[in-house]
Each structure stands twice: as structure tokens, then as C-alpha cells.
Amino acid sequence: GSEAASEQGQEEEVEDRLKEHMDSLLDKSAKARQAALQSLRLALASRTLSEFLLERRLTLTDSLEKCLKKGKGEEQALAATVLTLLCLQMGSGPEGEEVFRSLQPLLVSVLTDSTASPSARQSCATALGMCCYIAAADLE
């Protein structure tokens, strides 16, 4: 019993930290946004959070969109990486497809922008390929 309660407490603590990181994506400071993206990247890469993300995918997608639009270089690269991990977590169902469809034009835009940093363009290309493979319903 106490082991299950301890595990539940750890899970809530992780979710609280993730909520804080998601809130920090809207910070005015680029450094704070990058730190939040870095933390989200680590969290999404290390554990399955599909239930948590399912409820917050629209909020997270909006925040990632802002980071891709307004951010520069490293921030765009991290946002694209987090988007790839989000697509992986959402899977090939309608939720994953919705996330991909909403951010696909932006990924293509950064990818084809010759003034964007090479790391941002490369991360957007990876995100586009991975998300397309996982979540695109349209075969084209």
C-alpha cells in the first residue's frame, strides 16, 4: 500500500514539474524557454506520459508553435525535438495526427528558411520526417 502511495506521489510530482515547464514556454526570456524545452525533452524521452499529454496536447502544441515562430536557432531546434517526442507519445491515432497537422506548415517554413540556423532546420527536418511517419494519415 505505501509503495503504491509513494509511486502516486512521485507521479504527481513529475506532472507538477512538467506543468511548470509548460508554463515556462511562454516566458519572455529566451533562456527560460530554452531551459523549459530542455527539461521537457528529457522528460518526454525518458518516460511514457501519454495520459498527461493527452489532456494538454493543445496547450503544448500552441507553446511549441510560438517557440518555432518567434524563437531563434537553439530554441527552434529544441521545440522541433520536443514536437517529435510529443508525436511519438501521442502515437498514430487522431491525437498524433492533429498535433502533426497543426505544426506541419510551420516545420516546413523553418526548414525552407535559408536564414534559419542549420540546427533548427535539421531538427525541423527530423521532426517532419518522424511525425509524418508516425502520425500522417494522408499518404502524400
From TrEMBL:
InterPro entries: ARM-like, ARM-type_fold, IFRD, Interferon-rel_develop_reg_N. Residues 5-139 form the Interferon-related developmental regulator N-terminal domain. Residues 1-20 are annotated as: Disordered. Pfam families: IFRD (PF05004). Belongs to the IFRD family. This is IFRD2 regulator.
